Amino acid sequence: MSPSPRLCTALLLLVTTAEAAVTLVDSTPLASALSFLAAAGVLLRTRVPGVAVVLTLPGLLFGCATIAAVVAVYALASRRGASAALATAVAGVFAAGLIGQLTGPYPLHPVALVTTAAMFAIAPAAVGILGATRRRLVQSLTELRAVHEEQRAEAAAAAVRSEREALAREMHDVVSHQVSLMAVQAGALQVSVPDPAAREGARTIRELCVATLEELRSMLLVLRVGERAPIVPAPQPSLADLPALIAASDLPVSVDLDLPDTLAIPAQRAVFRTVQESLTNARKHAPGSSITVTAQHADETMELRIRNTPPRAAALALPGSGLGLLGLTERAQVLGGTVAAGATPEGGYETVLRLPLHGVADARMPA
Questions:
Q1: Residue of 208, 309, 304 lying closest to 253 (CA atoms)
Q2: 296, 305 in Cβ contact below 8 A?
Q3: Which of 41, 81, 136, 180 is deepest in the core (most CB within 10 A)?
Q4: What stretches pass through the bilayer (predicted)?
Q5: For residue 353, which of 367, 364, 205, 334 has the smallest C-alpha distance?
Q6: What is the mean pLDDT of each run of 10 residues along the chain (367 residues)?
Q7: Are strands 291-297 and 301-308 parallel, antiparallel or unpaired?
Q8: Terminal CA-CA length for the chain
Q9: How far is Cα of residue 98 from the mean position of the Cα atoms in its chain?
Q10: pTM
């Protein structure tokens, strides 16, 4: 972990002040004052590094301010990079350091003078330029990475939209067409057969086909629009829709529901979908069976049971994927509940939904 800026400033001020304090031993008061002024310039290195460089020049000429000059030149280079201001500062520090050594009490060899002045002027500038270049490169890489992530997200979103539209086309071309034909055939059957029971059955089939087409069209709209525009959700079922669902199923169903009036809407929807799926499964896999739907609640949980008796006739060979039960399980898990399903000892089938009564009102779940 890098030290804090305040700690760095304190350390640099301590070192430059200690260097300036050397002049108190055998230098004039003016030289000491100029050296301490150069040390104080360290405080300005982050805001006005050019001023900090200027403050070190008198100290280099008449006092002792080598470290302060190195710090000031580095600060200017790291913030301005290669620039005219930096070149001027390097030249000034080089000249001031060279003149200060020539006029000092202990002049060095000319080669050593030039080498020393160049080292304290050019070396910090080069290091500062490297640091500024590195920061610009890191910033550029960060921006490029962000652009790349954005492009990848856009490509993924475009792929999802393409898949949605392809799926919508397939569903429309296959499912919608076949269900429409079923509705037309059922309508024709309804007006052509003399048997009242057959006409009623044809009417029911036609109404179910129409309702399925409406739900399918809503689903196709969701698939095609996706995230590009807001979608007004269709009205979702609740407990008030259960009597119509049971009546439309045309199955022998006995209902005994003891649920609170304050049951959250997501929980009501889960109850409706569980009953709907159970009635569909009973019609498919247990023809002729009777069904009981019971629900009761305690202080913290509610329990819904849908049980059908053993089938009285051979089940039709209808396709089944098990996705209905999987969807019920996922729906219950979102609400903090569980779904259990399996055969009963009598040879029937039972589905049990358990949900908490509290904390599900704001749950996010599919319709």
A1: 309
A2: no
A3: 41
A4: 51-77, 84-102, 108-132
A5: 334
A6: 73 83 80 85 84 86 83 86 82 82 64 74 86 89 92 86 74 70 79 83 83 76 58 69 86 89 86 90 84 89 92 66 77 90 91 81 44
A7: antiparallel
A8: 50
A9: 59
A10: 0.47
